[in-house]
Known about the structure:
Number of helices of chain B: 19
Helix content of chain B: over 70%
Distance between the termini of chain B: 27 Å
CATH architecture of the domain at 1-84 in chain A: Up-down Bundle
Distance between the termini of chain A: 98 Å
Oligomer: heterodimer
Number of domains of chain B: 1
CATH class of the domain at 1-84 in chain A: Mainly Alpha
Number of strands of chain A: 0
Largest sheet of chain A: none
Order of helices and strands of chain A: HHHHHHHHH
Shape of chain A: elongated
Largest sheet of chain B: 2 strands, antiparallel
Structural class of chain B: mainly alpha
Strand content of chain A: under 5%
Number of helices of chain A: 9
Order of helices and strands of chain B: HHEEHHHHHHHHHHHHHHHHH
Number of strands of chain B: 2
Radius of gyration of chain A: 31 Å
Helix content of chain A: 55-70%
Amino acid sequence: MEIDWLKFFFYCYAALALFGATMVIFSRNSVRAVLFLVLTFVASAGLWMLLQAEFLALILILVYVGAVMVLFLFVVMMLNMNLSPLKEGFVRYLPLGILIAATIVAQLVWVYKNTDMAALHLGELAQKPADYSNITELGLALYTDYLYPFEIAGVILLVAIIAAIALTFRGPQNRRSQNIAVQVATRKDDRLRVIKDVGPDSDLKA
Amino acid sequence: MDFSLKAMLPEIFLATMTCVILVLDLYLSDRFRRVTYLLSQVTLVFAAVFAIALWDNHFVLMGGHFVSDKLAVVLKTSVFIVGFCIFTYVYDYLRERDIRISEYYILALFSMLGMSILISAGSLLTLYLGLELLSLPLYAMVAMIQRQNTASEAAMKYFVMGALASGMLLFGISLIYGSTGQIHLDALPVAINMAEQPDMLLLLGVVFVVIGIGFKFGAVPFHMWIPDVYQGSLSPIVLFVATAPKIAAFGMLSRFLWDMFGAAPETWQSFILIMAVLSLLLGNIAAIAQTNIKRLLGYSTIGHVGFIFLAIYAGNFAAGAFYVLAYALMTLAAFGILVVLSQRGIEIEDITDLAGLDKQHRWLAVMMLLVIFSLAGVPPSIGFYAKFVVLSALVDAHVAYLAVFGLVMSAIAAFYYLRVVKVMYFDEPTQTREITIPHGTNVLLSINTLATWVLGILPGGLMAICLLLY
């Protein structure tokens, strides 16, 4: 029997992503929840890889898994959050939650039933030659047609840095740094205090 | 691709100079902080000159993402002039309170760069990016100086609402892109006309984009941030938030509704009308109950936005442009006076803080009187002429009942404006205080105030320019 490997991998990654996403919500430990979120991202990256978007898939892993989620993990670990107060009222809000979820599911089913799937041209992916490079295409678009928006995005990032610093800067602080010149130039009088007239009963005598 | 970067000179110069000032400022000691201020002013003057130099040309650059036409020139120049006045008015305020001047100026310059990009946007992508570059420094400015908790609250509200509006705008843009496959402003009208019947997806996209625009203007029902931000933040920041971004928002409105959907006004007219009517109603009625002068001016802003939207509804974008420029000029003077008055440890917050201003500083009281009358629309001020143009546009569009509605709302507005005048002239001052205005600020503020009346008496020139835009 011929196995459609593409479909096989798709279902593997999709199941993994769904499993990860579910566990993010249901795990009691917040660090574990973050790790499951990482799993979800990796599985999604696999899905993108199947869509031949290899650059985006790798970027997803590099940026989200490698940077954003690690940062997130640090925050979660440092804050040592107690999640139990957040989960209070779960039962109370359950009917509302179920109602919203049911509405969304009903909408999805309705759209699916009423859409002519054949008319959407959901055909096969266009087969690109083996030397086709996503990055080249992306780079060409980014640095020719979309150069101007790209540069504005750069300025926005610069402003974000400036704004973040402006918001958190509290003026120059006194740091506990060593000044070697002062340490070397120190004299005996700076460190040693001679107490005169030591009485006979003093502890110092003994 | 066209590489004649001459058309982008205002933006390039502004961006470069802002970065230069940013780095230079790091090496300046506090005594020479004035250099930052002077350099910012020089930057704005040159940017305005470069913008005016482009008057006779029409450029489409950067693969269609950048447009420079008469509208761009007029709005950009106004933004830079308004910025120049703001920088002058706030300098002594910031200096006196030991507030970090450089951050204010640099963030404001970046915001003005965003306005400039937004005004010249040739595609929905640059429209969005320009809006973000405009807003991001504003959020930081509102949150930056935390004297009271209200600043944090204001910043938080502004930021969350702004993020929501950006999300709506992006969603709308994605729907329009999904429906037409175009993001360029010049290609979109063609794509829209190609479609035989109005596409629901496209209409939905337009709705979301107009919501985003309505938020920037502060039109009801997207006005919730205005009163809190105006009341919560310091006067210099309100001065900036209330004036220049409105001009840029008008540029965005005009690019979107005129350049793209001008051929199909039925797609957006109905909800522009709803926003206009609600803004006029809520802005003017809620303003009656205010005791805080900044909050009062905030609600009055909402009312003025209602007038701008009425002009847009009537399809008269020139009247809208005139109104927004008049509004910027008047608000600039009104908040400028509040900033100048807040000195020696006194912050002007409540209307009663203005009590007896006539006895404390006669010329400032006269200027405030002129500005308030202009805001109220007393003839022959610019506020009157702007309202007159909008109302006559409504009559020309055969919706006279809206003109009557606008008139009634102006009459209500006159009530709370006159109350401020009454407090200034007929109430006894609560404390004796001496008010000193630096010479340069005084001259500029006087010119600004007198302009609100001179341009009202002789509106022909400005109106002719506005008519050239469309």
